[in-house]
Amino acid sequence: MDSAFEKHCSELVARERSGHTAVVEDNLLYVWGGYMLCSLQSIADDEVFLPNDEIWLYDLERGVWEVFHMSGEVPPSMSGTCGCSLNGHLYIFGGCDDNGQTNQIYCVNLTDGKYTWRKIMHEIGSAPSPRDKLSCWVYNERIIYFGGYGHKVLNSVDSRNRSFIVDEASWVEDVFWGWNNEIHIFDPTQASWSEPQTHGRAPAPRAAHASATIGCRGYVCGGRVMETRTSDIHCLDFQTWTWSEIVPVSNTPVGRSWHTLTAASDGTLFLFGGLSVDCKPMSDGWVLDVETKKWREVEHPFKNKPRLWHTASPGKDSDVIVFGGSCDYILLVDTGHCNDALVFQTQPYPLFRICEDYIAKTVRNYETLRNQLPLLPPKLLTSVQKRMSFYRPSKKQQH
């Protein structure tokens, strides 16, 4: 881990939050939803959802936040929804709102500047049961959902089916809550739901796990399995729909939930943070080589910034952008919601990136360099000007 940046200096900054959705498109980080702890005279330390009709954009080159109003068939405010980006659209499925878990799916175009939500009514197949804290993979123009915690009615729970484990502490009459390891495929072009027949040994039902995609394979790591938190990692081949477990040949991260897993290259996955087995917020970072099956703990400058129920998105040049989350065990304290963007460098940067960053960081201190900026090639000049904004201190920092 060569270097990293923390950015939290814009005059306008997205509010603190956990359990939100975030994706990166064209070097812009889009943030929607989630919740935070609110302490007002009329609301005594109550959990409140963030506004559902606004989307926050963070320019990863300039280090500047913007917020835009959203319209259309706006989804309810919620947390724990599963979000992903496909063909310039943000899709969200599931989550928990004021009425509990949901199984609705919505999408919004991120590229037209209108930010108009559309509720998708499926035309083929059956939607999964309501759930939150699930994950997904994007492959072959489809979205593949895995796991989560939610509820089913009594007549849909088969005691012989090991894909759903009932939470004995949570049931009301003929409704059961629990964890699942189901696979559901959503095809946006046909508005269809389907369930593939998988082979091999599937991971145990779980929620608050993490997943990532490399090529034609989806990986899932850790999460809460009933009353425990695990560090196991499994792979699903999307061409054969075969599950296999990856048994590491080196030291492994401790079991955890509410962490993130991000594809850092064509052969490596980056794991960050989460809540440990003993309910400790984590700040460790690990890289898994999926071919050699070796975990390697990496050094980074955010050891004093534990995070759980945050988001992590792949950026350009193999960066991983972590946003928000909590630095406390949210079920006990729930006061430490965050709104900083942590940018991890997981691979050596190309020469162009090194040059623009170096010039942007040093030019503000040297009058001679500033006068020579117009001599740069147009492409490099544009990039340097954006990066200069990223490294420019805010008024708060200047004072």
Task: List the SSEs and their pairings.
Elements: E1 4-7, E2 21-25, E3 28-32, E4 35-38, E5 46-49, E6 54-59, E7 64-69, E8 71-72, E9 82-86, E10 89-93, E11 96-97, E12 100-101, E13 105-109, E14 116-120, E15 131-132, E16 135-139, E17 142-153, E18 164-172, E19 175-187, E20 192-194, E21 210-214, E22 217-225, E23 228-237, E24 242-246, E25 256-257, E26 260-263, E27 268-276, E28 281-289, E29 294-298, E30 311-314, E31 319-323, E32 341-345, H1 351-363, H2 367-372, H3 378-391, H4 395-398
Parallel strand pairs: 8-14
Antiparallel strand pairs: 1-32, 2-3, 3-6, 4-5, 6-7, 9-10, 10-13, 11-12, 13-14, 15-17, 16-17, 17-19, 18-19, 19-20, 21-22, 22-23, 23-24, 25-27, 26-27, 27-28, 28-29, 30-31, 31-32
Helix pairs in contact: 1-3
Question: Could you explain the architecture of this structure?
Answer:
This protein has 399 residues and is mainly beta. 9% of the residues lie in helices and 44% in strands. The chain contains 4 helices and 32 strands. Strands 15, 16, 17, 18, 19 and 20 form a 6-stranded antiparallel beta sheet that branches. A 5-stranded mixed beta sheet has the order 8-14-13-10-9, with no helix packed on it. Strands 25, 26, 27, 28 and 29 form a 5-stranded antiparallel beta sheet that branches. A hairpin with a 4-residue loop joins strand 6 (54-59) and strand 7. The model is unreliable at 2-10, 39-45 and 395-399 (pLDDT under 50).
Which key phrases capture this entry?
disordered C terminus; disordered N terminus; 44% strand; five-stranded mixed β-sheet; six-stranded antiparallel β-sheet; 9% helix; 4 helices; mainly beta; 399 residues
